[in-house]
Amino acid sequence: MKLLVTGGAGFIGSHIVDGEVARGSEVVVVDNLSTGKKENLGSDVPFYCVDICNRDEIFRVFREFRPEVVSHQAAQASVSISVKDPYGDAMVNVMGTLNVLEACREFGVKHFVFASTGGAIYGEVPENSKASEEWTLNPKSPYAVAKASVEHYLRVYRHNYGLSYTILRYANVYGPRQDPYGEAGVVAIFCERILRGLEVTVYARRSVGDEGCIRDYVYVGDVEKAHSLAVRGRLLGVFNVSTGKGTTTRRLLELISSIAGKKPGVLFAPPRPGDLEVSILDNSKISSYVDGWTELEDGIRKTVEWFSRSLG
Ligand code: NAD
Questions:
Q1: Each residue of 150-208: pLDDT tens digit?
Q2: What InterPro entries does the annotation carry (predicted)?
């Protein structure tokens, strides 16, 4: 398979690239390295340092490589940045994506896999329920609006030009290589700070000192497995990629600190504006294709080990 991965130097994209190279796919990566790192990629993976907002350059890459399948992972991936700069977010996440979709149309790409968000697209998930793919979309941030808008474009591209697609709505993905210095990615932030002996902040769900928000944490290796089915056209349409289990921020902190064997100082802070209180996704649709999900404790152990090796 000739696979082009946008955002392939990023956290999730680089795991996708590793998995597909190991399966013998012919892979190229397009990434502008705004948050991704060249070191995340094997030295023999063809790499184009190109911004998806540059339509001519994107068309040049497609003309040279002629991908059969495109995995679109590149994005401005921070909800809080999208709140501060909705225009910049839309330029990359909507207009940049349209450049990639137009190139797919021009060069006859057969299948498109899109990294959407299950964690943000459904809005607040009421207590004791899980958001399923059929739920009405209820974006609460410019980031989620942009992801929802691309999902609509994909329906239009399939209808008008026959481009088949898989939309993967990721929950909160964690694992090795996640950036601990960004504004999201609490697992990476906690791992890095706890291992360095630094204080960590727990943002409240409602009032300072409570258990914190509830999230559905999915291991990046499981995301990569689901993605491998998607690029082969074995998953068509829309799928949540999640464990279906909720974990509070404080529980997560306890788990990371017990696995790391270090007890950090904890600062309890008020809720962060724009944070959803609860987000848990129903994974029954995808679970009939993927065998089993990594238990949080096992995934956290692998992640702590990776951070401890990379911190030296
Ligand atoms: P990441 O920031 O590590 O990866 C994004 C990659 O896209 C980076 O390598 C970055 O350099 C690249 N990129 C950004 N803007 C670009 C541009 N204009 N042109 C070319 N490349 C560009 O983030 P991630 O967590 O690996 O996210 C991958 C995808 O998954 C994103 O689309 C994100 O919105 C989506 N997603 C992530 C999560 C999560 O929990 N991490 C959850 C839901 C959805």
A1: 999 999 999 999 999 999 999 999 999 999 987 779 999 999 999 999 999 999 999 99
A2: Epimerase_deHydtase, NAD(P)-bd_dom_sf
Which domains does the chain show, CATH number per domain?
A: 2-173+218-241 (3.40.50.720), 175-216+245-281+294-311 (3.90.25.10)
Q: How far is the CA of 265 from the centre of ligand 1 (A)?
A: 31
Name the residue among 51, 45, 52 with its Cα closest to residue 29: 45
Going from the Cα of 78 to the center of ligand 1, the distance in angstroms, rounded, reads: 8
Q: Which atom of ligand 1 approaches the CA of 10 most closely?
A: 9
pTM, two decimals, is 0.97
Question: Residue 118 CA: which ligand 1 atom is closest?
Answer: 43
Q: Indicate which residue's Cα is closest to atom 13 of ligand 1.
A: 74
Active site residues: 143
173 lines ligand 1 (CB under 6 A): yes
